[in-house]
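Chain A, query sequence.
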Amino acid sequence: MGMSGRLLKLMCINLVLLTLVTACSASRPAPVSGVNARGQMKADGRHYIVVKGDTLYSIAFQVGTDVPTLARHNRIAPPYAIYPGQALRIDVPTRSQYRVKKGDTLFSIARRTGHKMPELAQLNGLTYPYHINVGQRLNLGTRVPNNKAVTISKPNAAPAKVATNKPKASSAPNTGKSSSTKGSAPLAPPSGKAYPAKADQKTATTSGAIAWRWPTEGQISSGFSLSETGNKGIDIKGNRGQAIRAAAAGKVVYAGNALRGYGNLIIIKHNDDYLSAYAHNEQLRVKEQETVSSGQHIADMGNSDTTDIGLHFEIRYQGTSVDPMKYLPKR
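Chain A, predicted structure.
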């Protein structure tokens, strides 16, 4: 067989091998996209395949929704048990936003969007007198507003007019101080039942509101961002092994490393509305289903699944990321 014949035979073999490889790979599930847990997405992009180590809380956290919404979407009843190999629908409705216009008030926006004003204020971390700015984006959530009234400090006061000055930046300054004027007082009490703190905890309240505290000491290296690919929490620099503490009393609903990009992660449920998350830990000191008090040592700072040593801290309200600086006390 001449040189040209051998080349032709080799090309035919390569073509057959390439066809076989393509056919085999086409039948496999698509790689994870959007949901950064260890499981896999189905090819349709609307289903997630549960793997060992997943919880409904960890999956909802990555999807950007809350557990009740994801559970209802999949007809899963409490206590929300899932199993490896189970296909979950993750095509839950996305949370919408409203851009504030001149002349708007929080009251007018709430009425127009079908919300109760206290609920809309709580969803966006706003406190009395509810100042909003032209161009500011307000989270509207996906839920139909419930009928539970939320206690606010001055319920009979007239709604505040929109400020025409330039909106304040939502990212946190490097000094670690909040640009909000609120101090250690919590926001309006959430409607859900809160897990109580210990009786001797100084930051605890008796009104059912969450009393937030800083999860660790250190300088803020990156602040919160509302952009689609922005930081969904704050990053705090520190030293390896530094104590990470619960920002409020609650129950550990996730403790593991199944979510890519978060490393050793802890998620604490504080009530039916609020979660807090603590990522990139060196070592976890609590387990799932464990009840923790405010300020309890829950992990050691590290750099798991990242390059720099520090804590990535998030607060979620009904599954939506909110700016922790609007909740944490001044320091």
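Residues 94-168 form a domain with the Membrane-bound Lytic Murein Transglycosylase D; Chain A fold (CATH 3.10.350.10). The chain has five helices and 15 strands.
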